[in-house]
Amino acid sequence: MNEARVPAETTTFMTDFLRQCGGYGVIDGGLATELERHGADLNDPLWSAKCLVSSPHIVRRVHLDYLDAGANIITTASYQATILGFEAKGFSRDESEELLRKSVEIALEAREIYLERCTKDSWDWTASERSSTRLILVAASVGSYGAYLADGSEYSGKYGDSVTLETLKDFHRRRVQILANAGADLIAFETIPNKLEAQAYAELLDEEGIEIPAWFSFNSKDGINAVSGDSITDCASIADASKQVVAVGINCTPPRYIHGLISLIREVTNKPIVIYPNSGETYDGETKQWLQSDGMTGEDFVSYVSKWKEAGASLFGGCCRTTPNTIQGIAKALSSKAF
Ligand code: MET
Ligand SMILES: [Zn+2]
């Protein structure tokens, strides 16, 4: 680890942000599934990144809906945006890189529109003071190699023996560089299925001298391990060891597993814990449909947020199939508690 290159402000980036927000941060909810609710057809290897090409206005609209719902952090539509993915669609290398930048630009634009609107709408001094101090971060989403494969392997984490640490680093390198230089405040490495990919991200951040911080967020389907079977404590330890990682956690995982996972992660790190579960429904890759399963519903999910905060998490949002309503519920639940 080349600590000399990690800016001093990176170390305290998230704790400073959380302090300024009153101790916790609200993240947005599902982006891709919300784009679908707005009529986007994402049945495509690019998934949500398809909208960067076909309907950037819907992406901006959804970012704005989440800001209106109370989110302090919005994540870009770059989850499944990759240079190889765009090239497979016939875009040139330059055009592909431009589309990555565009994902960040749309989110920055939404933030600007939102803040401007707040200032205009404010009718008294108190309101304008409040809106001008509302902190909003743009997190550039990076989905896993498995997400690019678009074969559901971000939910198995099994890439086969031919995929090595170097394969993963080479796959993500240019994409991470571009997103880091596009004006985002941090990188959200999301739905990380295994240790190998976490290690690849940690090494990339270090070797490429990436100047913005990052969070690492894993997914689980048993409440103990990442989806690949690697233990969640091993995964979180890799995140803990990277100076540029400012929060560690779980996303796109059923709400019923979250409490236990927070406790496991807390055993190996003192970094802020980020959680943004999915709605608890399960995705059937064959039929391409979401199925309601037993356990918590979206409403229960919101009522558990304060428990998750007590267990040690400090950044809360939603993943697939959660909506601006979910985020509004989370924001309300947190603001009504005296923590
Ligand atoms: C499969 S997890 C997807 C995460 C991404 N940020 C989204 O909400 O679209
Ligand atoms: Zn998800």
UniProtKB/TrEMBL annotation:
Protein name, as recorded: Homocysteine S-methyltransferase 3-like
Keyword Cell cycle in annotation: no
Annotated GO biological process: methionine biosynthetic process; methylation; S-methylmethionine cycle
Binding annotation for Zn(2+): 252, 319-320
Keywords: Metal-binding, Methyltransferase, Transferase, Zinc
Cofactor(s) in the UniProt record: Zn(2+)
GO molecular function, one term: S-adenosylmethionine-homocysteine S-methyltransferase activity
